[in-house]
């Protein structure tokens, strides 16, 4: 064994004892080149396999299963038991939207009692939300069961949170009062709405609730209370929209309040409510029921240009009834021509004058869908008869026969 000094001398003479970057004993040192052989490449360490994460599982509803559930629900007895309903609903998993679809299907099928039991189950399982129960209230409203509607509203208000009632809840429930002509029920629900939802959420959706209440009160014969609802809205600084004015004018028509109807009709236009034949027809109806034919015709004649461009059977029928009462046969014929979209006489033979051609074009553009109804023709013929134009009335009847009755 060499001493440390001899070993140091040998290392200086022959070079390092191991190749740089290599390991001792890997190859021989070359005296001719003075180099160690190149080290063998070291294979890289295998990469660690990436961690495999489990894919997130999302529930995809099976629409065929939903339809099967709907079919089975509709096949249940008219008054099923809660156990029967729970057995069907609980055996499969459904999404929140599926339950809404189920309520709508049960409503279309007239199975509101079955829908109530489904709602009971969802409330008990804490799966219900306001959308579900609003769909349920629509089914109850179709059945006209005021007691069930009020009970459901009370439960929703008591529970709060996900099933807290909103304006849609109350407007749907009040429709049950309209269906059953329950004035007291409509008044109670409106008062509850004002104390809860209106105080809590403000005016959002309020017009739907008040208009529903006005229609329900009018259907029950309480038109005075319906008109008072409009005043309650104004007292609460709420704006009446087209739905509210329609319900209000319907109450005026029921009570023959023709002056109030004209004022509200004109007030709606002044407040920016878009004009419509519905509002004009309702106001005219109030005048006609009160035997104010001239006032009804005046309302029709001053309708805005956007309405005058196109004829509308229902509104024109009211105007023709006014013409019949007043004996205004010439205007009655013009109104029928507007509905039919053409002149009743003089359209054949000689070429039309420039004025006649312009009127023909206007009539054709504004023709009502389906033309003049049987009632419109009857009113026009009646106007001719009242004015003593019997030959003209006979000719009108012949034209009507040729147009609508001859080929039947």
Largest sheet: none
Q: Please identify the structural class as seen in this structure.
A: mainly alpha
- What's the number of extended β-strand segments? 0
User: Approximately what portion of the residues adopt beta-strand conformation?
Assistant: under 5%
Q: What is the element string, with H for helices and E for strands?
A: HHHHHHHHHHHHHHHHHHHHHH
Mean pLDDT: 85
Name the helicity range. Answer: 55-70%
Distance between the termini: 134 Å
Task: Please tell me about this protein's structure.
The structure is a single chain. The protein has three domains: 63-180, no CATH class; 206-308; 310-345 and 352-408, no CATH class. It starts with a helix and ends with a helix. The protein contains 22 helices and no strands. It is elongated, with a radius of gyration of 41 Å. Helix 5 (112-124) runs antiparallel to helix 6. It has helices spanning 4-14, 63-74, 82-90, 96-108, 112-124, 130-143, 146-159, 167-180, 183-195, 197-201, 206-219, 223-235, 242-254, 258-270, 277-289, 293-301, 305-308, 313-326, 329-340, 354-365, 374-386, 390-405. The longest helix has 16 residues, at 390-405. By secondary structure, the protein is mainly α.
